[in-house]
Amino acid sequence: MDAADASWWRHAVVYQVYPRSFADGNGDGIGDLPGLLSRVGYLHELGVDAVWLSPFYPSALADGGYDVDDYRDVDPRLGTLDDFDALVQALHHAGMRVVVDIVPNHSSDRHAWFVEALASPRGSRARDRYIFRDGLGAGGSLPPADWTSLFGGPAWEPVGDGQWYFHLFAREQPDFNWDNREVRDDFLTTLRFWSDRGVDGFRIDVAHGLAKHLGDELPDQATLDELPREGGHPLWDRDEVHEIYAEWRTVFDSYVPPRTAVAEAWVERSRRPRYASPEGLGQAFNFDLLEADFDGQAFRRIVEDNLELAALSGSSSTWVLSNHDVVRHATRYGLPVPDDPEEKRGGAWLLAGGPETELDRERGVRRARAATLFVLGLPGSTYLYQGEELGLHEVADIPADRRQDPSFFRSGGAEIGRDGCRVPLPWESTGASFGFGGGPSHLPQPSWFAPVSVAAQRHDPASTLSLYRAALRLRRELRAGEELEWTSEAAGDVVSFLRPGGWEVVTNFGGASAPLPPGEVLVASAPLGDGVLPGETTVWLRR
Ligand code: GLC
Ligand code: CA
User: Fold this and answer.
1) DSSP state, residue 437
2) Tell me: the pLDDT tens digits for 499-523?
3) 67 Cβ inside 6 Å of ligand 1
4) Which atom of ligand 1 is nearest to the CA of 105?
5) 63 lines ligand 1 (CB under 6 A)
6) Of 122, 145, 140, whose CA–CA distance to 132 is shortest?
7) Which-ligand-closest: CA of 173?
8) Which residue's CA is minimally distant from atom 2 of ligand 1?
């Protein structure tokens, strides 16, 4: 790692760690920073360039840590600031960068500022840091509007004195008022706090939600749903949000090398580049592949589109097949495609009906391996989610009384929620938690974890883990510029492209075999026949 390289993020492979489910150092069933520290060698061998930590801050876990009590500390169950420093040092020493999650749209309801707001009268400075409103009706007993939160249930919560506060997500996640200068300054302090501790970059949660303009008259939910999202929506993707990031940019650029950021912004295509501009956060997630079927031409269009968007912003593109909010891609690709396109986003509800009965496990993994190898050949950066390197499937059969995701509870179980991709990793094939920690883990692990554990795959050259390692090693060696030239037609199941240095990536998205193009085989997602590229397989060739 070149510590001074300011453009590392443009082509980095970033590995997302969900800290509570990665490795448990003290055996209490919850993953922690010492556990992660003990696995730095694993990440190094895997060959990723950076590690992104989902929130590890003090939290009551109303939303898996995305409900933050204190932005400048470590949850005592996960460790201490000293553990954090040791982790950063170890990752840096092993040549990896560190990215942390910043959750600026809302705090938790246990944050000192929210506790103070509740204890303070209406109109107070403390309440102005959040979004409080008088209720309607006698004594303000009715909510200011009929809005629903993204996790289901009402978005306005009464506080007992006729006022209500607003939350886009769970009740325990009150939204900040970003018109408030103290809120703005406090986040600048937080960004400096972690940058000073050596953090290289930030992943910005719900980056398109911070700026809000509610106005005097609140529309009803039906009207709100119909409003265009092109800069003037009361809640989403308002133009002013970029003033916030322009301030953040001055903080990022005050470090050497500049700290980086990537926006989680679910916005219209045309609005994405602004988040990714060098005056703003610098990079924005492209989630298009999360919503795409395993379809060659769909993949190709997404790639073309996002390379164009990246060029517009001057950023590099970001490829994501899995993260902590969606059904794992091995499972998505092994399930029948739903008829209703609305049902497809993230795929979470694919599992809601009757888990696993329709899942073709082998096919899902086969396709997942092919998709991953396709994506790792693209220019730009790739974000991997812990466990995908094992070809893990979603865990569908978590009993209701063990589930944790607020979207499950707030929807009365109608949404299965995101726990199934957050089950602690299997490191060993045996033991109470498959080597995750000492005793049982905080989310139950299924028996089928045994044959897919790290230990089971580590020395098997045909394993998914070995495939990821080989591909990441080659990717480093082959790294060459940003160019991509299509070598297949814009039709058909075989999609291929050439990268500088004669590196060709060929994916057969179809079920039937195709001829294998000429060239030296560098790596393949499945065994190749003689001159044959089997279905649902990717190969890297040197031409
Ligand atoms: C983002 C996170 C998700 C979280 C939500 C609220 O979408 O990725 O996990 O629930 O924000 O913070
Ligand atoms: Ca622990």
Assistant:
1) S
2) 999 999 999 999 999 999 999 999 9
3) no
4) 12
5) yes
6) 122
7) 1
8) 205
Two tokens, residue 496: 């291929």
Q: Using alpha carbons only, give the angle 429, 423, 62 rounded to the nearest 5 degrees.
A: 155
Task: Enumerate domains of the chain plus CATH numbers.
Answer: 8-107+182-468 (3.20.20.80), 112-166 (3.90.400.10), 483-542 (2.60.40.1180)
The answer to whether the CB of 288 is under 6 A from ligand 1 is no
CB 221 within 8 A of CB 147: yes
d(CA 496, CA 489): 9
Which of 17, 52, 66, 105 is the pocket-test mutation for ligand 1 (most atoms within 8 Å of CB)? 66
What is the number of the ligand 1 atom nearest to the C-alpha of 418?
Answer: 9
Is the CB of 169 within 6 Å of ligand 1? yes
Tell me how far CA of residue 374 lies from CA of 126, 266, 309, 317, in angstroms: 51, 24, 19, 14
Is the C-alpha dihedral spanning 57, 59, 65, 67 positive or negative?
negative
Q: Which residue has the tokens 């924005």?
A: 284
Segment 417-438, tens digit of pLDDT: 899 999 999 999 999 999 999 8
Confidence of residue 351 (pLDDT cuts 50, 70, 90): low
H or E element: which one contains 251? helix 241-252
Enter the tokens of residue 511: 């079920």
- Cβ contact 193:72 at 8 Å: yes
Half-sphere exposure of 228 (CA within 13 A, CB side): 5
Token pair, residue 78, equals 């996960």
Interacting residues of 294 by C-beta distance below 8 A, sequence separation 6+: 333, 367, 370, 371, 509, 536
According to DSSP, the residues that pair with 202 across neighbouring strands are 100, 261
Nearest alpha carbon, ligand 1 atom 7:
206
The finding on whether 405 has its CB within 6 A of some atom of ligand 1 is no
In order of 302, 450, 495, the CA distances from 435 in angstroms are 38, 10, 40
Query: Torsions phi, psi of 138, nearest 5?
Result: -60, 125
User: 117: phi > 0 → left, psi -120 to 50 → alpha, else beta; which?
Assistant: alpha
Could you report the per-residue pLDDT of 152-204, keeping only the tens digit for each?
899 999 999 999 999 999 999 999 999 999 999 999 999 999 999 999 999 99
Hey, what are 191's tokens? 């960004």
